[in-house]
Amino acid sequence: MLNKTICWFVALLLIHVTTAKAAIVFQDNFNRVGPLNGSTPSFSAGSNWTANSGFATDGTKVNASFGFGNFTTSAYVPLPVAITSGNIYTLSATVNRSLSTDNTALMIFGFFDATPSWNAGVAVDEGNAIAIAPRIRPTIAPMLNGFVNISDIPVADGTDGVTFGVRLYETSPNAWSAVAVELAPTNQLLLSSVSPVPISIANIHSIGMISGSFLPPYIDNFTLDVTAVPEPSAFVLGIAGLGVLGLVSRWKKSTRA
């Protein structure tokens, strides 16, 4: 019984610490109709969108429009908040393939430099991208290092309606890594041979999307949230609580004896 109580206590403590300090700093549900360029996100601490003409919203989601002229084009906003030590940053979006007839198409989204770009080669944004192109599992993570895994391109998709994310976190003070995650319908880390990926945040100046296909999928719920890393005092509190539970348990046992 004590072990179960301890497990519940620790779980509740960690849930409280992580959720209490989480904050959405940018979100766009694309709840408007028209060109994405110049439009105001649903919630933002930053600026309006800068986007190529092909990007448009339909009231619930965004797409780069169908056509050759919109292949490798981008849409982005300046990074809403500075990336600072002591925080975890998760950029996520939901993939909607129902209106695309190409099940090998992709829409790249993530962290980029000041002007995201791609020439359809191996390097994304001159290799500075910290992004994913949600399409297949488990080979989503390799784009985190700024390069496309070309062998993935012809493989059919299985990710419609799935919410993916790029998560930045510190492995030690000011040393950052990135992982790919699936947030919904499951909550799991997407591992690969290169996960987690050590990254440099020096070139991160924007968040956004790059159309990686002639018929790219739609994107919805584009969100950046920040979670403060639990402070040492929280763990001290947890240890103290466990100590109290232990003392109570021993007192009960001695009373019965």
- Can you give the mean pLDDT? 79
Termini separation comes to 18 Å
Q: How much of the residues is beta strand, in percent?
A: 25-35%
* CATH architecture classification: Sandwich
H/E series, N to C?
A: HEEEEEEEEEEEEEEEEH
The structural class is: alpha+beta
Shape: globular
Q: pLDDT under 50 segments (min length 5)?
A: 2-20, 232-253
**Tally of DSSP β-strands:** 16
What does this structure look like?
By secondary structure, the chain is an alpha+beta fold. The protein has one domain: Jelly Rolls (Sandwich), CATH 2.60.120. Helix content is about 15%, strand content about 35%. The protein has two helices and 16 strands. The chain has helices spanning about 1-20, 230-255; strands spanning about 25-30, 35, 45, 50, 55-60, 60-65, 75-80, 85-95, 105-110, 130, 165-170, 175-185, 190, 195-200, 205-210, 220-230. Strands 1, 3, 8, 11, 12, 13, 14 and 16 form an eight-stranded antiparallel sheet that branches. The radius of gyration is 21 Å and the shape is globular. The two termini are about 20 Å apart. The model is unreliable at about 1-20 and about 230-255 (pLDDT under 50).
